[in-house]
UniProtKB/TrEMBL annotation:
It comes from Salmonella enterica subsp. enterica serovar Wandsworth str. A4-580. InterPro entries: Xyl_isomerase-like_sf (IPR036237). One of its GO terms (molecular function) is isomerase activity. Keywords: Isomerase. This is Glyceraldehyde-3-phosphate ketol-isomerase. It comes from the Bacteria.
Amino acid sequence: MLNYAGADLSHVLLADTHNHTLPCRYIMNPPGVNATIHQHIGLGEGEVDFDALFQALREMDFANRTFKVGGEAIITTSLFGYPEKMSVQAVETRERIERELLGR
């Protein structure tokens, strides 16, 4: 998907997911639907390969892009599934993004 977007990719929203077909985590309608569940869980708690994602973004030089309209590239995350974890997960996520894409 990242390669398809190519040079037009300007905004990435990070979110981890679960494959509902593994150990019956969810009841889905219709039964047997091939889907992933968007959970707003912390990076690395689900099944997304974030090492591969960040590697692809580095190869695209995503962090250094600028656009005529909209300015700099944007990467965001949305963590609200577990408010009791927010004070730790938000910091860990920001630090990982900075480490992976900005070399901090």
